[in-house]
Design goal:
19 strands, six-stranded mixed β-sheet, 470 residues, 32% helix
């Protein structure tokens, strides 16, 4: 209940205002009631307040504290209230209680599908209680707004065209799949079917039934990703393994004819290459684009584990600093193993005399041994070595599958690294300026290849997204 002057000024706001509109009483007093009324409904409300009005009851939209509009039925007393100097206006919400018959209320309240009704202007007039479960919005918070404003920008043009076609064509009943912004800012995949309501329907113009299909879309993406990987795996196997197999067959035949063991050694090298190719290609085919349940762990621990597997006895690992990581430990170890193998395969030139043990802030003996540096950074971590580096003309393609500068390489190690890093939502790049970290004076800055993994910190993502805190 409120007392309103003829010019719309609110003179008094009753105690039920917060329950209906979600605002404090004092927020209305002294302001213009029409400022809170939906622009399309202001004229009938203004007429009801005037001295000449014959119809003192009007159904209209009024702004709620959450930014949306709710439907109310307002009745204006004909006589002025002397104690207020204005007319008493009594309003009650009708969007939930009277838009649909009472016998359908239970069905709508317990249904999992979202039911939305829009008017001829394309604005929401009703939304079922399931909007809280599906999208996280309070029921009534989007009333008076266009649903198109919540559609993902990449889907909006397509959805807008079909939406207005359904609004203007009673025979149109399109089914659409699109991304819709939820209350927490995430995008939810909805499957929506629209249907025109009769012209004399009091509830609105268009009925939209929507359901959350995010899990189904995720399964479809995983299936598509898996099929693409299997296709790529089959293609690579059929091409890249054919040459080593030919070498094996020729070597064995020559050995039998000449009694020479050297061709057998060539065959053994070819077998080793096939084994490496199969291992890395199976990794690409099986790993998919997602990650397992993330956990929190120390970077130095997973680095040491990876070095144990992929390090070289004639190379030295130098750890600089540490970081906390929230991610898939097993897959991050796999990425580090591939980075270490890349350093060893491409940087192992000259004699190696170091023990291969990892050290912290200590230099290897003065020799030609390969040094691999792993350092935490403000943006994540980096892996650098003092090998020959990557030629300038190959830098842009190092993460592409099948690209290698080594005769013994497969070209898929860095592709695996890229996919693992990107599955966490992070990025990896080849730096051209070398590592920018504080090394002990006795350790020369590595001037070979330098790969930087960059990730958001724990404060920049939600609690479920991977991060690195360096």
């Amino acid at each position: 209940m409120a007392a309103v002057a003829v010019d719309g000024e609110v003179l008094f706001a009753g105690p039920s205002v917060p329950a209906v509109l979600g605002v404090e009483r004092k927020a209305l007093v002294g302001g213009d009631l029409l400022d809170h009324v939906h622009p399309n409904d202001r004229e009938p409300v203004s007429d009801a307040l005037s001295a000449l009005a014959t119809d003192r009851a009007v159904t209209h939209r009024i702004r709620h504290a959450n930014g949306g509009f709710v439907w109310v039925e307002s009745v204006v007393d004909e006589e002025l209230a002397p104690e207020f100097g204005g007319r008493v206006v009594t309003a009650r919400r009708v969007d939930v209680d009277r838009t649909f018959p009472e016998r359908f209320r239970e069905f709508l309240e317990y249904g999992t599908d979202l039911v939305t009704v829009v008017d001829a202007d394309g604005r929401v007039r009703y939304e079922s209680p399931s909007i809280e479960e599906v999208l996280g919005y309070e029921q009534g918070s989007t009333v008076g707004r266009s649903p198109l404003g919540y559609v993902h920008p990449d889907d909006r043009e397509r959805v807008t065209e079909r939406f207005y076609r359904a609004l203007n064509d009673p025979e149109a009943a399109p089914t659409m799949e699109f991304r819709y912004r939820a209350a927490d800012g995430d995008w939810v995949w909805l499957e929506a079917r629209t249907r025109s309501l009769p012209d004399d329907a009091a509830v609105g113009r268009l009925l939209i039934n929507s359901r959350d299909v995010s899990e189904r879309k995720a399964r479809e993406r995983r299936l598509t990703d898996r099929n693409e990987r299997l296709d790529r795996f089959a293609s690579i196997v059929s091409h890249d393994l054919r040459n080593p197999l030919s070498v094996i067959r020729g070597s064995m035949e020559m050995a039998r004819l000449e009694g020479d063991t050297e061709p057998l050694e060539r065959g053994e090298r070819a077998v080793d290459r096939i084994d490496q190719l199969v291992s890395e290609l199976l990794t690409l085919a099986r790993q998919g684009s997602g990650i397992d349940e993330p956990t929190e762990f120390a970077l130095d621990g997973v680095v040491r584990d990876a070095w144990t597997t992929a390090g070289d006895a004639d190379a030295t690992l130098v750890l600089v600093g540490d970081a906390r990581v929230y991610g898939d430990r097993g897959r991050l170890r796999q990425a580090l193993e591939n980075l270490f193998r890349n350093s060893v395969e491409h940087g192992s030139t000259g004699s190696r005399t170091s023990s291969g043990d990892s050290v912290e802030h200590a230099a290897p003996e003065a020799d030609d041994g390969l040094t691999v540096v792993v350092s935490a950074t403000d943006a994540g971590f980096l892996v650098a070595d003092d090998g020959p580096g990557i030629p300038a003309d190959r830098r842009e393609e190092v993460f592409e599958p099948g690209v290698t500068t080594s005769a013994d390489g497969t070209g898929y190690g860095l592709d695996i690294v890229r996919e693992i890093v990107e599955s966490h939502g992070w990025t990896v790049r080849l730096r051209s300026d070398g590592p920018d970290v504080d090394l002990p004076s006795q350790i020369p800055p590595p001037d070979g290849a330098c790969f930087a993994v960059e990730a958001p910190g724990p404060g920049a993502v939600s609690g479920t997204e991977p991060w690195i805190d360096g």
